[in-house]
Amino acid sequence: MPIKVLVAKPGLDGHDRGAKIVARALRDAGMEVVYTGLHQTPEMIVTAAVQEDVDVIGISILSGAHMTVFPKVLKLLGERGVDDIVVIGGGVIQEADGPKLKALGVRELFDSDATTQDLIDGIERVVAEFGRAQKRTDAARSTA
Amino acid sequence: MKMVERETPTGVEAGRDEWEQLTLLPFTARRPERRESFRTLSGTELQRLYTPADIAESDYLRDTGFPGQPPFTRGPYATMYRAQPWTMRQIAGFGTADDTNQRFRYLIAQGQTGISTDFDMPTLMGYDSDDPRSEGEVGREGVAVDSVDDVLALYKDIDLEKISVSMTINPSAWVVFAMYLVAAEERGFDWKKLSGTIQNDIVKEYISQKEWVYPPRPAMRLVRDSIAFSVRHLPHYNPVNVSGYHTREAGSTAIQEVAFTLAAGAAYVDEVRKLGVGVDEFAPRLSFFFVSQIDFLEEVAKFRAARRIWARMMKDRFGATKPEAMRLRFHTQTAGASCTAREPLNNIARTAIEALAAVLGGTQSLHTNGYDEALSIPSEPAMKIALRTQQIIAEETGVAGTIDALAGSYAIERLTSDIEAACLEYFAEIDKRGGVVRCIEDNYFQQEIADAAYDLYKRKERHEWELVGVTKYRDNSANPHVELHHVDEAASQRQLEKLAATKARRDEKKVEAALAEVARVAATDENIMPATIEAVRVRATGGEIVNVLRPIFGTYVETPIF
């Protein structure tokens, strides 16, 4: 089954070139892609991710509000008991904030120079490590 | 059957044929060219060599002419940079108004000659700083402005009659314009002496920058009202800055940038004419804004073509008779999208080349990006080098001494004509589809841009367009460290306190009455500006004024495409 990705644009910022290119490139690479459109709140993003039953939420953010948005999305996922949707991000995220976001549970961050292959490799890796497939394997192992 | 004989080439064409046979073919047989074709950044195929034959159809007096005269191909003014260089206008905005005022004063001290203001996302979208949707965004991407008190602080100790002030704001532009006017009035400045520009270009918001509140049709009315008001009361002010920058940054081609922007300009002309204002009366105050991308030749040609197309459109389609009403004046910003996150100091070289293209293309003002453009909003050191880049072009390179120096270049003239022809095709297509607003509603522009952006992205992936340090010559050792703009986490709290203080000082009854009057006027066909100015004067906030119109105008929701 192909990996299913929600490409999400949080907040008021309208820089959607990257989000749209990523959405199209991942679709062309065989993934299933849902694009939220602009001006989404963390609640809207998490609701869409659960309804669409995605493997990955990819948040595109260039507004500087990443230290507000990512924690909220992760917290909402936690509140709903969702632990198998992987959260990744890209856009303009200052290097110093990368480790802080990863410590909170953001699994991968891409800068504006990332290639399609970088994206595909990164997504496949984090899904294998933290996503649904991994959780299923763990569950199978514990019942065996 | 009679054979159609090929006309025997003469002169330049004959010479070119001979050159190809005698010199070119033997040479390429020994040393093939490194690519089958060379394309511009926008994808137009470049010829190997341009000669007089490529511009044989062009007529100098008709198509090129002289600076300061239609069709203005050579420039909007008779002496260009020999009178004074372009306005060096670095955009700034972060934190509270006090923070940004400090940056303005620093830039003026370094020799900057105009001011340009970047607002934060909540201000741009019409939300106050205390709105829940503003959380995390107050003062981040620009300066937070909630009321006229913030505008007073923003331009404190700056002489608004002496320096031109540009404000980059769109869906809520009419409110911030009103704040600017009230601030100027409270400081005792004469509106008639204010010069400056408000972006106020809502069309390109739906197309590319994606900041909006209301649907396109009522939003066009707000633009129309502010233009009509400004033309009557502020003879030196530009009430709209029709912008291609964001369209190109969103991934369009150079041709789409010019075509969609000038089509938007024509849509505003149509709107204002509906009020019975003559085109010669207001068109001289329309101003434009383009990017300067990294493809040097294409960009120089683009600027020249834009002036020629606009002059012809104003004359032929709208019946302008005054040359000033046909004259396209524009601001330029170097291309944020050309800047890379890797090896950020390389962006200094890119920006310098782009700035030179803008100057050789005849820009009226220029913002050069900081080397940290792909990483954050600019730091002070990054802005200083960016400003110095402009000063070096103006003072050291010598290009400011002669007008439109690249005119007559076979390549430049041919590219100029080709861009003009391609834009005319787009105009016909837009008309066929029912005009600019209809094309927005049908996602036509949005899809064209998304397709062009993806095409360029794929060309980069195939290494048909290289990015030095990224797709070619990539150095995978650690990225050099540059000091970035420091985000002041306390700024949003200070802004919330300032907003609360303004609200505590004002007369709520007056605010309510003023907001009710704005709503009343919005439902009629009266000009919205006087009621908005009154509301601002009694300290109604931007968010309150924007909100009071939501039930009347409705709100806009995009159908996302990719």
The CATH topology label of chain A is Rossmann fold
What is the H level of CATH, i.e. the homologous superfamily of chain A?
Cobalamin-binding domain
| Strand order within the widest beta sheet of chain A | 2-1-3-4-5
The poorly predicted ranges of chain B are none
Radius of gyration of chain B: 25 Å
Sheet with most strands: strand arrangement of chain B: 3-12-11-10-9
Average pLDDT for all residues of chain B? 95
Oligomeric state of the chains in view: heterodimer
Tell me roughly what share of residues is in helical segments of chain A: 40-55%
- State which percent range the strand residues of chain A make up: 15-25%
Order of helices and strands of chain A, N to C?
EHEHEHEHEHH
Structural class of chain A: alpha/beta
CATH topology heading of chain B: TIM Barrel
**Count, helices of chain A:** 6
- Give the count of structural domains of chain A: 1
Count of individual beta strands of chain A: 5
Summarize the biggest pleated sheet of chain A.
5 strands, parallel
| Low-confidence regions of chain A | none
Note the beta-strand portion of chain B: 5-15%
The main sheet of chain B comes to:
5 strands, parallel
What does this structure look like?
The complex is a heterodimer of chains A (144) and B (562). The model of chain A has no long low-confidence stretch (mean pLDDT 91). In chain A, helix 2 (42-52) packs across helix 3. Chain A has one domain: Rossmann fold, CATH 3.40.50. Chain A has 144 residues and is α/β, with parallel strands linked by helices. Chain A is 50% helix and 17% strand. In chain A, strand 4, helix 4 (97-104) and strand 5 form a beta-alpha-beta unit. The mean pLDDT of chain B is 95. Chain B is 48% helix and 7% strand. Chain B contains 21 helices and 12 strands. Chain B has one domain (54-461): Alpha-Beta Barrel (TIM Barrel), CATH 3.20.20.240. Chain B is an alpha/beta fold and 562 residues long. In chain B, the strands form 3 sheets. Chain B has a 5-stranded parallel beta sheet. A 5-stranded parallel beta sheet of chain B has the order 4-5-6-7-8, covered by helices on one side. In chain B, helix 6 crosses helix 20 and helix 12 packs across helix 15. In chain B, helix 6 links the parallel strand 6 (165-168) and strand 7 (196-198). The A-B interface holds A 7, 11-17, 19-21, 23-25, 33, 35-38, 41, 63-65, 67-69, 92, 94-95, 111-113, 115-116 and B 121-122, 124-125, 127, 133-137, 140-141, 205, 209-211, 249-251, 337, 340-342, 374-377, 450, 453-454, 457, 461, 467, 470-471, 479, 484, 487, 558-562.
